[in-house]
Amino acid sequence: MDQEMQQVMQLVNENPFIKMLNIEVTGLEPGRGQSCLEITVSPRHLNPQGTLHGGVLSSMADIAMGVAIRTLGKVGVTVNLHTNFLAPGRLGDRVVARGKVVHDGNTLVATECTVTCGEDVLARATGLWFVIK
């Protein structure tokens, strides 16, 4: 992994919100606009119904898409985030979010993310990002 990707990894791993959720960056695709994040669902991630909270799924998608943008050497802020919740996650599940840049513009970047547990798709998200540097 090159120095720039190590810096991205360090930045993500030191983020207090990411630490609070116990999100791990498990994959970066330098220059390709792709990333992979994972969590193991714990009691802190559950909603009152006992399934994975939608806010955790949305947060994972948002972070995965933001990290994907950083693999292109850009920094962006979320302009729009749309998440479709498709299946529940459960306590103990290993959940994976794969973020991907689908349009790399100078000012706006379009992204998508699929959040899965094994073969099950838990959520699909899209995001629009404003490039700040």
Features:
133 residues; 6-stranded antiparallel β-sheet; alpha+beta
Query: Which percent band covers the strand fraction?
Result: 35-45%
The number of helical runs is 3
Provide mean pLDDT, rounded. 94
Strand order of the largest sheet: 1-2-4-5-6-3
Please give the share of residues in helix: 25-40%
Ranges where pLDDT stays below 50 over 5 or more residues in a row are: none
First and last CA, distance: 22 Å
Shape: globular
Total DSSP E strands? 6
Structural class: alpha+beta
Helices and strands in order:
Elements: H1 3-13, H2 16-21, E1 24-29, E2 34-40, H3 54-70, E3 76-85, E4 94-104, E5 108-117, E6 120-131
Antiparallel strand pairs: 1-2, 2-4, 3-6, 4-5, 5-6
Outline:
The chain is of the alpha+beta class and 133 residues long. It has helices at 3-13, 16-21, 54-70; strands at 24-29, 34-40, 76-85, 94-104, 108-117, 120-131.
Account of the 3D structure:
With 133 residues, this protein is α+β, with helices and mostly antiparallel strands. 26% of the residues lie in helices and 42% in strands. The chain has a six-stranded antiparallel β-sheet with strand order 1-2-4-5-6-3. A hairpin with a 2-residue loop joins strand 5 and strand 6 (120-131). The protein is globular. The two termini are 22 Å apart.
